[in-house]
Amino acid sequence: MQFQRLKLSGFKSFVDASEFRIEPGLTGIVGPNGCGKSNLLEALRWVMGATSAKAMRGAGMEDVIFAGSDKRPARNWAEVTLTIDNSARLAPQPFTDQPVLDIARRIDRGQGSTYKVNGKEVRARDVQLLFADASTGANSPALVRQGQISELIAAKPQNRRRVLEEAGGVSGLHTRRHEAELR
Ligand code: ATP
Ligand code: MG
After folding, report:
1. What's the mean pLDDT in 87-100?
2. Mean of the pLDDT values across residues 2-10?
3. Which atom, in ligand 1's list, is nearest to the CA of 32?
4. 39: CA distance to ligand 1 center in Å?
5. 32 in ligand 1 pocket by Cβ < 6 Å?
6. Which tens digit of pLDDT belongs to each residue from 150-179?
7. To test the ligand 1 pocket, which listed residue (6, 39, 61) has its Cβ within 8 A of the most ligand atoms?
8. SS3 for 155?
9. Considering only CA atoms, which of 133, 137, 139 is closest in space to residue 176?
10. Which residues make up the binding site for ATP (predicted)?
11. Could you tell me which residue, 144 or 70, shows the higher pLDDT?
12. What is the pLDDT of residue 104?
């Protein structure tokens, strides 16, 4: 699955609708301090179903909504859309047959998050599993946060194993087994 485009509106510092093309070979984002590089990576994690506000550097999930500035009032919602090329049909069911996936997450103040795939409402879990199977996702070791390397070095073996399982693409299986056991 090839990421193609990331669209943001009202997400952190990206108050106006912004669109970024993600082309093969992209290896980094450069820019001055505070220009929004980390916010972009967080938007990517967020649309893939991140549940930890702390990983978004906030106290609560609503902190991802543009909080206002000297010149602009705060927003009441934020939305991020990730477009994925699924022409190789690698996405799991029920998304396998759709050649392009527009995955959208929106948060409204006081109402929490909603997710849509190609305009149709889905559960957070559906989006999380979609990426878990692709060995990517909000907790994927493919996305390295600032400070994460030193955390990994200091981590307990159990936690380090989780990173290896993500990298090996088996964490989606673990999640489904856990859900099956709960039923
Ligand atoms: P560095 O090079 O220092 O790592 P960066 O490019 O990664 O910088 P970010 O951390 O992505 O920068 O962006 C920080 C900016 O985003 C700050 O100016 C901060 O005020 C702004 N910001 C974060 N959350 C919000 C929010 N909810 N509303 C408005 N602005 C926000
Ligand atoms: Mg940064």
Report:
1. 92
2. 96
3. 2
4. 6
5. no
6. 888 899 999 888 877 877 767 777 777 778
7. 39
8. coil
9. 133
10. 32-39
11. 70
12. 98
Could you tell me if 8 and 80 are in contact, meaning their C-beta atoms sit under 8 angstroms apart?
yes
The tokens for 86 are 């699924």
The DSSP output letter for 79 is E
Query: Which residues partner with 107 through β-bridges?
Result: 78, 113
Superfamily classification of domain 2-182: P-loop containing nucleotide triphosphate hydrolases (3.40.50.300)
Spatial separation of the C-alpha atoms in residues 16 and 27, rounded to whole Å: 25
3-class DSSP state of 8: strand
The pLDDT of residue 41: 92
How far, in Å, CA of 6 to CA of 18, rounded?
A: 8
pLDDT at 18 over 90: yes
- Element (DSSP H or E) covering residue 103: strand 100-108
Over residues 136-141, mean pLDDT: 66
Q: Comparing 76 with 135, which gets the higher pLDDT?
A: 76
Q: How many CB atoms lie within 10 A of CB 140?
A: 20
77: Cβ contacts below 8 Å, ≥ 6 apart = 10, 65, 106, 107, 108, 109
**ipTM attached to this prediction:** 0.98
